[in-house]
Each structure stands twice: as C-alpha cells, then as structure tokens.
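Hi, here's the filled form for the chain we discussed.

Project: internal
Contact: R.S.
Residues: 156
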Amino acid sequence: MDFAQGQTGVRELTLTRVYDEPREVVFRAWTDPRLLAKWWGPEGFVSRVCEVDARPGGRLRIDMEGPDGTVYPNRGVFHEVNVPERLVFSTFFQDDAGNVEMEERTTVVFEDLGRRTKLTVRTAVVKCVPELLDMLQGLETGWLQTLDRLARELTA
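And the returned structure, exactly as it came back:
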C-alpha cells in the first residue's frame, strides 16, 4: 500500500491483492453491473443503482447508500478498457447543482497468475474541494474494505 500526496496536490493510493480466481472472472466482477453492485463500496454500503458501459467513453453510475441512509451518487467515464488486462476510469462526486466536487482517476491492472489473479488498483484524487478534504482520510480504508468485499464475492 502506498498513500502519498505529490507536489501538485494529487493524492495517490496503490493497493495490490491476489485473488484465487482467473483474471477473466475478476475482470468480469468489475464490468458486469450485477456483480459490481454486490461488492462495490465500503462495509455497510449498498449499491442501489449500478450501471456500467465498459468501453472507452462509456459511462459508469453507482449510487451507494451508506448505513445511515445517505445516498452517495458516483458518476464516471471509462478511458481505457483492455479486456481482461486493464481498466482506467474516472469517478466524480457532484453537488446538487452538478458541480464536480471530487474526481478520482483509477487504473486497475489484472495480472494473470494461472488460476489466480494479481490485482493492482491505483487511484489518484485529481480534484477535491476544500470542504471534502476530510473525506480523503477514509480513502484507503474505503478501498481496502471494497477489495475485501470483492474477495468475499468471488468466493461466494
């Protein structure tokens, strides 16, 4: 794991996991909306809406509901889709008027280890309004819990 703030103010996080499933299965868990909805988000969150158009320029929409009932709408766009090796996408958190308050650019690499997959997730927060800076303190925990949920879903 690595969490660093670069000179430009970009905050980056890199996480690596090995899953006991072939990479085609792990890749599909990231691009099939029915599967993605089952594991996306930190513990206690539920994805009420999950739409995925996994192609360059395709849109991503995941509305997560937190344990307290607050809905966190995520919108995004895919920049790169290289089946089953790599995904690059951006996600946006917007205010009620549609202004982007935070933007993350995420790269996911799926490395073939035979019947297993090494997954590397690198996310960079490229924009964040001052009011949401405190939210970044939970970035690593949120991603760790999300990847734990993926592991449980893959073994289910």
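Let me know if anything looks off before we file it.
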